[in-house]
């Protein structure tokens, strides 16, 4: 059938995807990845042309460097593109016919590829569960669980999709997922679809300008523990709060946690652009991933909560820990 439609890489977005997933790349080309998102959002045929190109790169490809790049492009597009693209990427045809096939036993892909595919399916199933026309991925997710497929992480707040750097800033070295099985390590974007609220990210150009001292690293990690604590509390509340039964004070606390975590993330993104220590950068990226996932859950459910009457109070003691991440002051 493809010969009737032509080469998927011949379209504008297809050509960009072919370049962005070329196995010769040492790390993700974030400028090109964001250009792909722009084409998808700005053209009539962008979504379906992009899906065709991604399918071509993923189907039967044993070059797992290219597969990982393609999965990163795919995830970046889900984070940054709208409903037309979501309909295609969450369909049973794509999830089962493309993504699940990648991790089938006969293909025997590396563990990192299996984990990446399963993490994407799990994250999308949770994010789009309440959208009737996007539940194909939810059905596949439930079917995989019934078959005994073990997903890499069970708590959604610990899932780490990606952090999409701003177009003006370059991705820090060592943040590519590819490092985990060849040379580059896991990136982690943020920039969510139009349906969600995107936090303000400062335009930082001082990439890799700070090599922190052991004392600074110790202080930063202590502050990151505060961020993780807030993220954990926020995740627990999202899990426990039932629309129509939540107490007004619980919802106010959830809103305050959201505001506080977004302020913390702004400083984290600054640090990612400033810090040149690879281990610290990786830790920052993972914390940023956790925040992105919790924001995705919050935004996908906040409309449901606000549209329901107030109910009972959640029986737990929760507080918002505030922290300005002073370490970020070194990024000048």
UniProtKB/TrEMBL annotation:
Biological processes annotated in GO: protein transport; signal transduction
Domain GAT residue range list: 215-303
A GO molecular-function descriptor: clathrin binding
InterPro entries: ENTH_VHS, GAT_dom, GAT_sf, TOM1, VHS_dom
SMART domains listed in its UniProt record: VHS
Keywords: Protein transport, Transport
GO-annotated cellular components: endosome; membrane
Chain residue ranges for the region called Disordered: 165-190
SUPFAM superfamilies per UniProt: ENTH/VHS domain, GAT-like domain
Pfam family for this entry, one: GAT
Top-level taxon: Eukaryota
Domain (VHS): residue spans on this chain: 20-152
Family to which the UniProt record says this protein belongs: Belongs to the TOM1 family.
Protein name: Target of myb1 like 2 membrane trafficking protein
Native source organism of the sequence: Mastacembelus armatus (zig-zag eel)
